[in-house]
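Risk register update: the risk of archive-format incompatibility is retired. Evidence:
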Amino acid sequence: MTTLRLSKLIALAVGFSALNGFAADSGLRFLNEYSIPTDTTFQQVKFGGLSGIAWDQQKNVYYSISDARNTPAEGVARFYTLKIDVNDKGINRVDILSMKELTDEQGLSFKTQEVDGESLALTPDKKNLLWTSELGSPLRLSSLDGKLIKDYADKVPAWYNAGGDLKKAPEGLRNGLTFESSTVTPSGKFVYIAAESALKQDGNISTTVSSSPVRILKYTVQSDGSVGELVGEFIYNVDPIPQVTKHGVNDNGLAEMLAISDDKLLITERAGRNASEGFNDFDFTIKTYLADVSQASNIKGEKSLNAIEKKNLLQPVSKKMLIDFNDYTKAPDCIEAMTFGPLINGKKSLLFVSDNNFQPYQANKFFVFVDDNGVLN
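Archived output:
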């Protein structure tokens, strides 16, 4: 097994000690930030596009999916196995242990622009991976060798138009704002998935003055990752755009989820904006919330929020901010992945990873927090 020791490539794991401290009043303590240059390669392929991460506690390794779309510039659809050395000082080193291509059921490469891996979750039996895609089927099950086991496109209600022509369809998901996140609950009973922004028939994307009603879907799941019944759909209101730019793109969306129980989720929102003319530089605002679906209205089977009687009585998913990354780093970058890590002095750790989008002005960044007050229990 080839191992690239990135510590030899990087002189310093960047930690902003002056900014270290507690995330708001949550009890989550920031340790450090570790950066891998965007020009890093592994097996002659660019290392990057990290859009989801899952920790295998038994093996103490991490699986991280890349959003590469099988293009010459980005490479094949794939995921990595990583070794991350973490202690009470933070992340010391990240090693790339392996890279596996994600393939179809015959073991063949997906076509160009057929998949866009955005999140992955380890199945309860730790033998397979559930992963979401912004292109094609929104939810798939693959082995740890990368081979497709099952496509679960038929589990998503028809009015999402998942995998359809999103640009022309009057209803359903929006192009580029489809399924971005997934998580399996610690009990192994459920899997959650969510799109980045609202369905067209439910409402608008976030603006500077309004939030966006994103649907979170909850399914039963078996130990091997077989997805069962859709048991819930809940509305989560993504914040308004926190900061605008005169140079073009401004947005905010649901980037990732991490279950801490059957009903409680950590949800990361990512807002991006052009920092200069053209698409050659971006700034980001990243916030992570503690969300609870237990008291939220279950709108399972409802095609449109606007068709629901007494819509004003709908209860959205509750949320409480835990982390504003601008308090702890000068440049949070495009954070799209989070997972638990090993215990640090008996306390849970929480890791975040950014997607470098294969851009020279970005980097693969890793961040780690420690839960000193047990808010993640």
